[in-house]
Amino acid sequence: MSPPRRRAAARRSPVSVVTGAAGFLGSHLTDLLLARGHRVIGLDNFITGRIENIAHLAGHRQFKFVEQDVTEFLFLEEPVDYIWHFASPASPVDYLEYPIQTLKVGSLGTHKALGLARHKGARFLLASTSEVYGDPQVHPQTEDYWGHVNPIGPRGCYDEAKRFAEALTMAYHREHGVATRIVRIFNTYGPRMRLQDGRVVPAFISQALRNKPLTVFGDGTQTRSFCYVADLVEGIYRLMLSAEPLPVNIGNPTELTMLQFAEEIIRLTGARSRVVYRPLPQDDPKQRRPDITRARTLLKWKPRVALADGLARTIEYFRNQP
Ligand code: UDP
């Protein structure tokens, strides 16, 4: 940035662009940025995002919304300081329904968002995923693990799109000197998840709230580690402000089997539900837990919200959904 531009930037609020701003994570990130004094320009095409997630921001003076597919050319007149690239279908059910859009937003959408970052001299953060590790053979997963991914399986559209997005981000960093950050997001939950998005948290909670059986896939011994959304966006914010261009895992290392998780949801909701078993989807990772040593040391970050507390807030949200 030239000295006059830097002085101008110092006088005004930082400007952030959030792609996927109407999504689960994008909308929580937008709230956090507004609370920290950013002006936010949110983009979404509503494939899986929902207007309800940002309805509370209508009329907010520091928030502007643009309905746009981020695979199309991004034109913004104003200066931009930070770009947070969160647009993508992200639940297995969603990316199976939209495999081509998932591949396009991870590839073409990331290209457009990086191009905007380069043009504006903005810092860029890619929302990547633990899915880059595939069905991992290293446990817990550290950032230096290269992964075990089936490129042509049903999850390949998401996993490979995000792997390509990481490669493109590093190329823009190395070739064009763009200041880039990559967060690998592990399973996250909280208010504003779609009840029907197929992920295990909304699936089990909605089943339990109706006293229906909880559908455990496979034998329920596969594991996941769930991070509350407020913890996640705090970690991501710190990563953007850090100087770290290499990927950083953000997630909660408390690991549960899906059977234990079903029992926890039944306990917390007080449901009379039982568990039923359904076939395990193809390539469903058998175990997943983040090693967060890098986040702890580089960002001084660790999750603070206990699973029972985060789930209680999430259950409350789903109880109040029509
Ligand atoms: N799962 C389940 N019952 C459901 C939905 C999901 O047992 O109704 C399992 C799924 O097989 C996986 C885990 O829960 O092992 C997490 O699935 P999710 O779709 O939330 O995300 P993933 O971590 O697989 O991307």
How does this model look, in words?
It is a single chain. The protein is an alpha/beta fold and 322 residues long. It has a domain of 209 residues: 3-Layer(aba) Sandwich (Rossmann fold). The protein is built from ten helices and 13 strands. The strands form four sheets. A seven-stranded parallel β-sheet has the order 3-2-1-4-5-6-11, sandwiched between helices. The longest helix has 22 residues. The protein is globular, with a radius of gyration of 19 Å. The termini are far apart. It binds uridine-5'-diphosphate. The site of uridine-5'-diphosphate (UDP) has 16 residues, from helix 6 and strand 8.
Q: Please name the CATH architecture of one domain.
A: 3-Layer(aba) Sandwich
Question: Average pLDDT across residues?
Answer: 96
Number of helices: 10
Biggest β-sheet description: 7 strands, parallel
Structural class: alpha/beta
Shape: globular
Q: Any idea of the CATH topology of one domain?
A: Rossmann fold
Spatial separation of the terminal alpha carbons? 49 Å
Q: What is the fourth-level CATH superfamily of one domain?
A: NAD(P)-binding Rossmann-like Domain
Oligomer: single chain
